[in-house]
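Batch manifest, entry 17 of 40.
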Amino acid sequence: MANFKGVDYLLIDSCLTEQELLVRQSARQFVDDRVMPVIRDSYRQGIFPMELVPEMGRLGFFGANLEGYGCAGLGNVEYGLLMQELERCDSGLRSFASVQGALVMYPILTYGSEEQKSKWLPKLAAGEAIGCFGLTEPQFGSNPAGMLTKAVKHGNEYVLNGEKTWITNGSLADVAVVWARAEDGIRGFLIEKGTPGFTAVELHGKMSMRASVTAMLNMNDVRLPESAMLPGARGLKGPLGCLSQARYGIGWGVIGAAMDCFETARQYTMLRKQFDDRPIASHQLVQEKLADMITEITKAQLLALHCGRLKDQGKLDSAHISMLKRNNVAMALDCARTSRDLLGANGIMDEYPLMRHLCNLETVKTYEGTDHIHCLVIGERVTGIAAYK
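Output type: structure tokens
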């Protein structure tokens, strides 16, 4: 496709500020010029295009909605539009930025000591260091409260043992934010690459998120000084607060994937001719699918924009984010499937982005809270009953 012009059926751009439009355009141009030309090969090869990381840092993409320490200090709608444009290219690209900012920089900024902030945040913001977030374990995904990783205090040190899995950027990371069970509850620790007993093993064989690096982290008698602990985080509220930041970005990001699928299908059906040499877009069944997709994309845009405004006002909570993530991921998956169908056999070819988005979105539906878990969070909000307990 030619450079992306956007999908804005309901004139939602009129609700955005000049600054918000500028941030989106900057991200859109970067994606079109620098990432779209390489993403297909990256997905084929199962690698992340690391050569782009310094440029993403210079553009302020990492921790973009955080303040200070070299961060861009964007508003939350600006940040959402940035995530949208990154995921319009590929979920792996958005995941890299999302983990770096929401799951590594955010906890260091929110829960870390001044020494930890000064050491890591400027490097992470500039893309000079990479981080990862270790919460999920092989036996505990949706129930992080059951984690087995332990941190035992010995004098002025903590000794960590356990393992984490499905860790985005795990084998690339210079620093890992790892959550472990200590005597006083669940605590967060910063583990630097090269620490004795700490290893990261890349996971292979993925059929989804192939342009993203995923690993397992192993802690075998990892000794850390007390200064490695995040002093401001105690209990599950710490890691769950990080996940709320990341899920917010997902709710915006998947709109980008849906837009790319819709626009690919729209252009294809305008050009593809069948039956009396007419474009298939002239047929009612095709127009019905396009109408359904643009309607659902528009509803998702409105939901994301309102959540962004609420977040800027300090009124957005985790149950709101559950609706945003659950609804918009389901919408994007439906758009990817429908768009693939409209392209027929061509829809499975990697000349087009549809199967790549479709496979990626199956993972996005699962990670950082499955569709079912977010459904139960919403159910608890409207009934007052926690059905997952």
